[in-house]
Automatic annotation (TrEMBL), chain A:
Record membrane topology: Multi-pass membrane protein
Positions of transmembrane segments: 20-43, 78-99, 111-131, 158-178, 216-238, 270-291
Protein name: Sugar ABC transporter permease
Pfam families: BPD_transp_1
Family membership noted in the UniProt record: Belongs to the binding-protein-dependent transport system permease family.
Gene3D superfamilies: MetI-like (1.10.3720.10)
TrEMBL record, chain B:
Organism: Catenulispora pinistramenti
Membrane topology designation: Multi-pass membrane protein
SUPFAM superfamilies (UniProt xref): MetI-like
Region (Disordered): 1-23
Domain ABC transmembrane type-1, chain residue ranges per copy: 99-301
The protein's name in its UniProt record: Carbohydrate ABC transporter permease
Record family assignment: Belongs to the binding-protein-dependent transport system permease family.
Source species taxonomy: Bacteria, Bacillati, Actinomycetota, Actinomycetes, Catenulisporales
Compartment(s) where it occurs, according to its Swiss-Prot or TrEMBL record: Cell membrane
Length: 302, 315
């Protein structure tokens, strides 16, 4: 029953369709098609189950542009993506400067990664407790005589800054891991030569590490955008679902959640929830394409 | 010498020459600054790690305190550990039920995802057809579509499914089944993509030898490729378990009955009742119950998780 390798390939071609089909059909009809249907819903006014959807054109989008609550949510999301991203990657670069030759580096690396596998709800609940007005942080500050520094960390003025800080604190480890796994692949003798020539760590970063990790940076930045646009759990954990989160704290995803569920007592607005989803997709797409352009570089082969 | 080292020449020769031409004290000052900066960053990294450890220990310690101790002495040790916090969280605050929901929903959806994604990824990796590349790109697009673009249709579909099953088929329905199905759909693009890349990294000789020996393609896949790809399959499974264990948005939207919700939602629910019940020790016990399985998983498969999440990302 000996067969040739060519025959084997032919047989494998026979299983191509049956093996692929279940995944392809599920993905097409339950992922791509619903995403497309969302676009249709976004042109309707629909106040939830049991009522009918009425076509109302671009009204949901127009309302978004004039409604200050929506605008705040989108501005917050954008700030989170840009400012949070700047912090995440600044911290990642600083780490890359020193981590290669740091003692205990693999331990530090695996520890920094831990927050990304933990529920943001759990982290937000614990940290939120520390940040409460009569919480532990303010108590410690007054105990050591820094009473002037105590504030309502989760009050309307500061809460979004706290959310950004928390997101940065949670996610930086992931980007450090991505970038460092690329740094690991850089041959040691490049650094050796640079050191002999008198280049200090910043120069080594500038002329070796940075150019040789450009492609990983581009991927990392794209992943950051995809993840950060969706920020939801940490906001909910800081503010709770019992009441509507303060407007200053809301992200686009939180605003959408409130539109689907109707918030505390309001009516659901499925049409505008769909429109928020569409805008979030567009925001992701535009930012990803822009980043790809911005960070495009010829791959440096080693 | 390859071209890239030429690109890097400034780092070596040119820069070094420039540095040598620079007056010595200036160079020394810059180097001192450089040393200072890296010292600061290293210290910062250790402080970061210390914060993580302290926060974790603090959460565990707080989960064993009485309500009074939580507030009067937030950073001290409990007089006697209050294990009843865990008992109460488990039975009274519904963490037992929620843990059951989490384990069943996550296990069912993660396994079903593998069953659907593995054969697809295998043929996509092995079949030399131009359409295969297009299909891979098609799946990759799904990784860039935010779940928020699916919230409204999934909300409606799960409602319709529930009504349909209750009225026409079974007479009952459990929203957790809808949730598990949604999880399968959401995990599919990433899993297919990751596994395709993994199958591509495996050598083709073994399966070709098997086929020449008379094994049909199905037997080759089940008896040779799946065991051979064990490592990659377990990694994909673990990554999906981590992601689904922490998922919160669709639980809140799809599962109507709070009693049937998973652990992150149960924790939120308990947090929201704090102002009436102030069972703070129980709240922290809940945090530990939610987080501990992931920490154990990380201790067991940490390197694998990090590798797959980062390298899967880069490829």
């Amino acid at each position: 029953m000996a067969r040739s390798v060519g025959g084997v390939r032919g047989e494998r071609d026979r299983i191509y369709v049956p093996y692929l089909l279940p995944a392809l059909l599920i993905y097409t009809f339950l992922f791509i098609a619903p995403a497309a249907v969302t676009i249709w819903y976004s042109f309707t006014k629909w106040q939830g189950l049991g009522t009918t959807a009425h076509y109302n054109g671009l009204a949901n989008y127009r309302a978004m542009l004039s409604n200050s609550v929506f605008l705040t949510a989108f501005r917050n999301t954008l700030i989170l993506v840009v400012v949070g991203g700047a912090f995440v990657f600044a911290l990642t670069f600083l780490t890359m400067v020193v981590m290669r030759e740091m003692r205990g580096r693999s331990f530090v690396r695996s520890m920094l990664f831990v927050p990304c596998i933990l529920s943001p709800i759990a982290i937000g609940t614990a940290v939120g407790f520390l940040l409460n007005p009569d919480g532990a942080l303010n108590q410690v500050l007054s105990d050591v005589g820094l009473h002037s520094l105590t504030r309502g960390w989760l009050g309307p003025d500061l809460i979004f800054k706290c959310i950004i800080a928390a997101v940065v604190w949670i996610s930086t480890g992931f980007y450090v891991a991505i970038m460092m796994s690329r740094v690991d692949a850089i041959p040691e003798d490049l650094y050796e030569t640079a050191r002999l020539a008198g280049a200090n760590r910043l120069e080594q970063f500038r002329y070796i590490t940075f150019p040789l990790t450009r492609d990983a940076l581009s991927t990392g930045a794209v992943l950051w955008v995809i993840g950060a646009v969706k920020t939801f759990e940490i906001v909910i954990a800081f503010t709770g679902t019992a009441g509507n989160p303060p407007i200053q704290a809301r992200s686009a995803a939180v605003e959408q959640y409130l539109a689907v569920t109707g918030g505390v007592s309001g009516t659901p607005e499925l049409g505008s929830a769909a429109a928020i989803g569409v805008v979030m997709f567009l925001l992701t797409a535009v930012l990803v394409v822009a980043l790809r352009r911005l960070l495009r570089s010829e791959a440096v082969e080693l | 010498m390859n071209p890239s080292t030429d690109d890097l020449a400034p780092a070596g020769t040119g820069r070094a020459r420039a540095a040598k031409r620079r007056p010595a004290p200036a160079k020394r000052a810059i180097d001192r600054l450089d040393g200072l900066l890296s010292g600061a960053v290293k210290t910062g990294l250790w402080v970061w790690v210390a914060m993580l450890v302290v926060l974790t220990v603090w959460v565990v310690v707080t989960s064993l305190k009485t309500n009074g101790e939580v507030f009067t002495d937030p950073f001290g040790l409990p007089k006697s550990p209050q294990w009843r916090n865990y008992r109460l969280a488990w039975s009274v605050s519904g963490f037992g039920q929620a843990a059951f929901s989490s384990v069943t929903v996550v296990a069912a959806s993660a396994l079903l995802t593998m069953v659907i994604a593995t054969p697809a990824a295998y043929v996509l990796a092995r079949v030399n057809r131009r359409s295969a590349d297009r299909v891979i790109t098609y799946f990759a697009i799904g990784m860039g579509i935010p779940a928020q673009a699916l919230v409204v249709p999934f909300f409606l579909m799960s409602n319709d499914l529930s009504t349909f099953m209750t009225e026409w088929v079974t007479g009952w329905w459990d929203d957790r089944i809808s949730l598990a199905l949604i999880y399968v759909v959401l995990s599919l693009p990433f899993t297919v993509y990751l596994l395709t890349m993994y199958f591509r990294s495996l050598p083709t000789e073994i399966e070709e030898a098997a086929a020449v020996d008379g094994a049909g393609p199905t037997r080759t896949f089940v008896e040779i490729m799946v065991p051979l790809a064990r490592h990659g399959l377990v990694t994909a499974l673990v990554l999906n378990i981590v992601a689904l264990w922490n998922e919160t948005l669709f639980v809140l939207i799809v599962v109507g009955d709070p009693q049937q919700r998973t652990l992150p939602a149960a924790l939120l629910e308990l947090y929201n009742t704090m102002q009436y019940t102030s069972n703070w020790g129980g709240l922290f016990a809940g945090i530990v119950i939610l987080v501990m399985p992931m920490i154990l998983l990380y201790l067991w498969a940490g390197r694998r998780i990090v590798q797959a999440m980062t390298q899967g990302a880069i490829k």
